[in-house]
Amino acid sequence: MNTSPLHTRPWSRRLRHALEAPEHWDVLDTPAGPLADAVEALPLGPYRDALHGVWLGHPLHPALVQLPLGCWTSAGLLDFTPGGRRSADALVAAGLLAAGPAALAGWVDWARLDPPRRRTGLVHALSNTAGVLLYAGSLLARCRGRHARGRLLGLAGLTAVSAGAALGGHLAYRLAAGPDRAAAVHRLAPADWVGLGALEDFPPGKPVRRTAGELPVVVVRDGEQCHVLAERCAHLSGPLSEGTVADGCLRCPWHGSEFRLRDGQVVHGPATAPQPVLETRVLSDHLEVRLPGAG
Fold first, then answer.
1. Contact 211, 195 (CB under 8 A)
2. Residue 1 reports pLDDT greater than 70
3. pLDDT bracket for residue 177 (50, 70, 90)
4. Contact predicate 87/134, CB 8 Å
5. What is the pLDDT, as a whole number, of residue 2?
6. Distance from CA of residue 23 to its chain's centroid?
7. Computed from CA positions of residues 35, 41, 44, 49, in that sequence, does the dihedral angle turn out positive or negative?
8. Is residue 230 within 8 Å of residue 276, measured between CB atoms?
């Protein structure tokens, strides 16, 4: 009996290698660039932020994919359950209907990723697209009374979307395409007041990078008031000190996320988590900051 840890076994190493491989396939950059531009050009208006999940506070795509995956997994079980054929057929159809919104949310997020994550995301999408096509064929076969063929195509589709799900998990957790990059700010921000400099060091309306204790921050002066936010964007750690200020918001230079200066709330995605804001005060024309609520 093999008692070695699972992660040290050959099949486990091969699986991890397979999941990690796509991020190194730079040949995918050739189709990925124009495809991302096409997604960005879609006339989605305010629905783009909704698809990112700004209203939800975290990416919407992972929540939506539960619907088609749940339907198709259940259909796979019912296909081999006595009397479950009609229910399985209905679930295959329901999964296809649910796949559209889930895919659209995924593409909108994917278009704002950097190249390594975009490569993995593209393979993830291709695997899921293959699964959708197989399930469409499965439904067609079922409607024509070819139930054995429909079950076989359904199993093939479930295999494809399962591979896509594994890549999606790798993209979200190993490559950190979705987590809040600013979540650790409260552990780095100073609990006591620390100085950032004289007010005259901060030109009005221009982001300036400073360090508060161990935390990089960005300072934006508005008259005699200063707004201080964590400097690394909550989306993919873009340098907000290189961003632009307009209409009371700070725009990330990398992917265009916009945060309200006064409270860090997301105005436009792809970021879904608010940008941490530090408490400020001015003493003798010098700016000081600390962790909010530390007093």
1. no
2. no
3. confident
4. no
5. 58
6. 16
7. positive
8. yes
SS (H, E, C) 15-60: HHHHHHHHHHCHHHHHHHHHHHHHHHCCCCCCHHHHHHCCCCCCCC
Residue 6 pLDDT grade (very low, low, confident, very high; cuts 50, 70, 90): low
Q: How confident is the model at residue 293 (pLDDT cuts 50, 70, 90)?
A: confident
- Residue 214, C-beta contacts closer than 8 angstroms, at least 6 positions apart: 188
- Looking at domain 185-290, its CATH architecture is 3-layer Sandwich (2.102)
Where are the alpha helices (H) located in the chain, listed in sequence order?
10-20, 29-40, 47-52, 61-64, 66-78, 85-110, 115-143, 147-169, 185-188
Q: CA nearest 192: which of 222, 209, 215, 220?
A: 215
Asked if the peptide bond before residue 270 counts as cis, ω within 30 degrees of 0, the response is yes
pTM (whole model) above 0.90: no
How confident is the model over 117-154, as pLDDT tens digits? Answer: 999 999 999 999 999 999 999 999 999 999 999 999 99
Cα separation, 15 vs 102, in Å, equals 26
CB-hemisphere CA count at 13 Å for 74? 17
CB 121 within 8 A of CB 31: no
The CA–CA distances, whole Å, from 287 to 32, 248, 267 equal 45, 19, 26
Domain residue extents for the chain: 6-174, 185-290
The pair of structure tokens assigned to 18 is 């397979």
Nearest Cα to 112, choosing from 268, 218, 240? 268
Q: Which two three-digit tokens encode residue 2?
A: 């093999």
Higher pLDDT, 35 or 4: 35
Q: How far apart are CA 102 and CA 66, in angstroms?
A: 9
Query: Of all residues in the chain, what percent carry a pLDDT higher than 70?
Result: 96
How many of the other CB atoms lie within 10 Å of CB of 265?
15
